Amino acid sequence: MRQSCNYTKKEAINLVMKWELKSYNEDYLTSKSSEFGESKLISRLLLNREINTKEKVSKFLNSDKKDIHNPFLFENMEKVVERIKKAGRNKEKIVIYGDYDVDGISGVAYLVIMLRKLGLNVDYYIPNRVHEGIGINKNLLNFLKKRDAKLFITVDISINNCEEILMLKNSGIDIIITDHHRQIGILEDGEQEKELDILTINPKTSSIYPNKSLSGSGVAFKLADAIYERYGANKKYCTIIWML
Q1: Tens of pLDDT along 92-129?
Q2: DSSP secondary-structure letter at 197?
Q3: Do the beta carbons of residue 122 and residue 97 sit within 8 Å?
Q4: Backbone angles phi, psi at 223, to 5 degrees
Q5: May I ask the CATH class of domain 71-232?
């Protein structure tokens, strides 16, 4: 899991990212572009993901529902969906808390839209990268209190601080964590996770789910897919996944 990014405004502005682009022989790239029937840019992106044959390209770009893993392969998925359905039945406020990068924001947007379409009472909170970083802070606690939140769902973020978890639990808030980062701290310990009564969905910690490379928004989509299935809802809103 990433550390909190509590940068000052000046430090954040001065942050420099150095991108290292994988290079390919121009003739090889031209050949693959012709083989794939795609532009050189698209072909480069495919090759970067080790999608290097026409068959793999076709499956990746034209995937079907049958190619997608069952979301209920995640060990806690059934319990998570049932808790969300309970929130719907009881008209409880759900707050979705996401990371401030494009992965987290996309996943939050997708879940919020989907749950609202199903009639659930949903709000969201995305922390300020510069002033808040990642973690439970006073602003978030005030946000949850004002909305009388009863269910807290993370997207692309874990909470590994026991004190932060207890702050939420002592406020009568149940916690569902969806993430894709390698876990450290208390979430490494399945027994402690059970003791704290937290439900997690994470491909890195699942012993069954096959795809360990899901993005944070990808995990959010798996949750949405499972909810749609249990609600028996029309899945036309799943087209939003192509934005993730």
Answers
A1: 999 999 988 898 899 999 899 989 989 999 999 998 87
A2: T
A3: no
A4: -65, -45
A5: alpha beta
In angstroms, rounded to a whole number, what is the distance separating the alpha carbons of residues 164 and 162? 5
Q: How far apart are CA 140 and CA 125, in angstroms?
A: 7
Q: How wide is the angle at C-alpha 106 spanned by C-alphas 67 and 90, nearest 5°? A: 90
What's the rounded Cα separation, in Å, for the pair 222 and 74?
9
Give the residue extent of every domain in the chain: 26-62, 71-232
| pTM for the full predicted model | 0.77
Bridge partners, 198 (sequence order): 175
CA distances 7 to 128, 136, 139, 215, 224, Å, are 11, 16, 17, 25, 33
Sign of the CA dihedral running 158, 164, 166, 171? negative
Q: Kindly tell me if the per-residue pLDDT of 185 is higher than 60.
A: no
**What SS3 state is found at 5?**
coil
